[in-house]
Amino acid sequence: RLSTVTEVLTALGAEVEEHADHLVIAGKDRLPGGVTVSGHNDHRIAMMAAIAATRCQGPVTITGAECVNKSYPRFWADYEALGGQIART
């Protein structure tokens, strides 16, 4: 899972250092975004990408985003209610 988190956050523009059992993530106010990332059929990865997308300058597309239904079926409704922007395709 660490490599998947690294892959997604790096694609969004984060600076991530992956180690055997942890990550070191350099804090930034904003990320470039403007990319498509996979949710990797993992509800945790898709939700992480969605939250990170709120700090991106460009739009972020998450493929397989419906996987959040496994653990949090209302995630997208709650995300929008809190100000997250969604364009369904």
Give your account of this protein's structure.
By secondary structure, this protein is an alpha+beta fold. It contains 3 helices and 4 strands. The strands form 2 sheets. A two-stranded antiparallel sheet has the order 1-2. It has a two-stranded parallel sheet with strand order 3-4. β3, α2 and β4 form a beta-alpha-beta unit. The mean pLDDT is 96.
Labels describing this entry:
89 residues; alpha+beta; two-stranded antiparallel sheet; two-stranded parallel sheet; 33% helix; globular
Q: TL;DR?
A:
The protein has 89 residues and is an alpha+beta fold. The chain has three helices and four strands, in the order H-E-E-E-H-E-H.
- Report the structural category: alpha+beta
Shape: globular
Strand content: 15-25%
Distance between the termini: 27 Å
